[in-house]
Design brief:
The chain is built from 4 helices and no strands. By secondary structure, the chain is an all-alpha fold.
């Protein structure tokens, strides 16, 4: 869930990670799986409060906003967009 991922990220990550971290050329995470691993790693460093669904939501948020890497449906299900027409 992109929106929940955004809320979780804003609540817990932006204190240390502004957008410059995600836009730098020397990225450690070069796949969606690697982004997920970094989210899990830093969650653990912060006390490990998130379960897999929260990690996946933050991963979806970061992937859609910054990384644009291909993502397997098990990690990043398609977001259904509601038509306003």
């Amino acid at each position: 869930d992109f929106d929940r991922g955004q809320l979780l990220y804003q609540a817990r990550c932006v204190g240390c990670h502004d957008k410059s971290v995600h836009n730098r050329a020397a990225r450690k995470a070069v796949t969606v799986e690697a982004i997920r691993a970094q989210v899990k790693r830093w969650d653990g460093a912060m006390g490990g409060a998130w379960k897999d669904p929260e990690v996946d939501d933050v991963n979806t948020y970061l992937k859609e906003l910054y990384y644009k890497y291909p993502c397997p449906p098990a990690i990043c299900p398609d977001r259904k967009r509601i038509s306003t027409k």
